[in-house]
Design a protein that fits this description.
Subcellular location: Cell outer membrane
Shape: globular
Membrane topology: Multi-pass membrane protein
Mean pLDDT: 91
Oligomer: single chain
Protein name: TonB-dependent receptor
Organism: Iodobacter violaceini
Family: Belongs to the TonB-dependent receptor family.
Low-confidence stretches: 1-25
Amino acid sequence: MFKPLAIALAISAAFPAVAAETTPNKVERVTVTGSNIRVSQKAGATAVQVISAKEIAASGKTSVSEVIRSISANSGNSYNEQFTGSFSAGTSGVSLRGLGQKNTLVLINGKRISSYATAQNLQETFVDLNSLPMAAVQRIEVLKDGASSVYGSDAVAGVVNIILYSEFKGTELSAELGSSTEGTGQTEKNFSIKTGFGDFNEDNFNVVFSLDGQKRDQLDQSDVSWMKDGDFRNQSGGSLNRVITNYYDGDPTKLLGGPQGPIRLTDYSSITNGKTGQVLAYNDAPYSTLIPGIERYHAFARANLRINDDTQAYAEYLYGFSRANLTFAAPLTVSSTLRAWNNQKQALDTINNKLPVGHPNNPGTTPLDFTATLFDLGKRLKTDEVTLHRVLSGIKGTAFGWDWDASLGYSQSSLEETVQNFVNRYEYEKVLKDGSYNFADQSKNSEEVRNRLRLSTLRPAKSSLITADISASSPELFELPAGSVGFATGAQFRQEKMDSRTSDAVLSGTELRPAINIIDGERKVSAVFAELNIPVIKDLNVNLAARADHYSDFGNAFSPKASARYQAADWLLLRGSASRGFRAPSLPEITKSSAVSYGAVVDPRDPIAPTKSRGVTNIIAANKDLQPERSDNFNLGFVLSPTNDSSIGLDYYNIKQSGLIGTQSGVDIIANESRDSGKIVRDDKGRISTLYRQYSNMGDRETSGIDLDLRQRFNSKDYGSLKLGSQISHVLRFAEPLSTGEPLTDGAGSNQFGSIPKWRAVSDATWEIGAWSTTLTWNYIGGYDQAFASDTDTAKYVDSFNTFDLTASWKLAKDTTLTAKVINLSNTRPPWDSSTDFFDHTQADPRGRFASAKLTYKF
């Protein structure tokens, strides 16, 4: 029996999900994410999870990313700053239903914001959650079904709408200090200021302003007690994690010099079963950053001004700055696969890397192939600085029974990435030729030679978005026997641009072994949409919506949707929806873009090692002929409210996607080399050195599952109030083809297509009495099958992951609150996953127990 489900069912959960907000004289109408029509019901035809500012505070989360990524529907294939090896280090995104960050639309106050300055995994464009202001968040609404009919592209899996304060009275200050238990303690500091003045009803204006900041130390693998030695031989599929270096003739047992610096003599058999002899190897834990050191600041301001009784103007400004520092990698290892970019040919040149005759490290009479790590140049370091701006202004009002809104917005995300201690190709060729650099005993190298070899570079990138929106809606367009017909319509224009460049050192061929993600494109999008809310009979409403988009690069997309809401009884709501959605090809996929990345393949035609994995370079190109990915979404559910203080919501979802955009796998290219010979480049020995790939519309994907939302509240005059809640997501199916043309394979409950646990749940209990408030949160991530387990792995399963968070707040005085929290109360380690380096960082983090104290003062 699934424990979180059983316990959550036993404790149930929360407040009325279907009651309307009312006053003695009128029904208050609200706009719910996923619709343009203001309605009186909190619970609509589609499932929307609402996370209030009070609930965010009770959770102990300190960033927008932590709040959103912790929801149960974020089931897999999303990344935060632990993904340090990407082109988007220091960022964070959300992936509803495990469909990737590119299929989840993130909005601010119901409107789009610029995507991050460059792409993640070469093709994914997404909104960086780490650039968004935590202090300004009033609530977060998560729509868990497709919404292309309302918002257009990217909403295939759902929508996360972050609602920022439009009004705030008084001033609130807070400061927080905390530390983790791993290593010497990863210290984190947070502060926030929130203030507002003006009463819109009395003064005809109001202004709200917030500022928050966060600073956290860097956490390296060498700081974590159970990872610092790099010895995982006690784990299934684990090994002594060592990097072999400093040898010649392609044979690790032929040593180039003796041990130096971090290099040590190691038995080859302790690293690789079946090997013999001694090798020079080092532990790479000190060169691996698990969580970057970060410094972030966010500001938000909004002003509202009443023009007359029916019209008001508004303007808002959002600013985010984020700096992430990390160790990118160990010093460069030079070998026979050494490359540099040739911009004229748009290809990689192979650099001659043989020790010439007469070189101090080559006592022979012929040039010598060799491998060596340039330890004396120091760790390769990376710093990413990201700046986000968004300016939005508009005017809205009512006229003739219609609500209308018109706005203009501009947002921009800019990146400056600097790297240190990479290697200058031209200086390297000089010192290799003249023998002035000693590979075998690097202590003999002069600082002048080292400085000549060291290379620091700057990679800039920018993404911008211009939007113009106009909409109008009427909740009472005309009357039918069962009630009023609601109607909404509108139009949108936006211009998207992305200019992600590489460094001048790469373009000039100066940087050795470059990774490249060049994106240069823009497009214009125009759209019209309409929505009808029709009362068919008493308590049965049908909503019809449609949106037509025109893209300047690929053409048109049409997205219809139909949904129904039936209040079968005071205690029972039935709901369902069916829609057609799409994801437009991202600018990296369809515009003038190219990328260089590194991977490994097994080549059965390799003349030396036909059964062994070999490192290769991938050169990936965009495709101007791409069409959008299409989706068919179906949702069905109910909300049961047996009392005013309890509710049970159950929703089923089914998403079918076609025309997924990707590149042909290395396995497919090699298997069809006779047909695709132009996609493979082999060296003079006949070994694969480069694979050429291009984006194309390829296979299909199907996913389905259920969401369970349980809420219960108890009130007692003597014992205060107790609120219980649980959100549980269960993936029934997550199927893709393993390679081009093959049938779908179900990867739910495995890491076949990224880790997709079948179960994920977040359950909490909040007790409030007098001046005290305490919240205990249980985070559950189900285990999953090890799809890539080798024959020698004793375990074919990755264990489930349970953590508990505890926050306690004490109102010291009317305006002062002290809050203490402990995240991961039991100091639980992430479960071992042999398919990753150590554990899956999309599901867990290595900080261990984290404790902090926060002081809040409001006046």
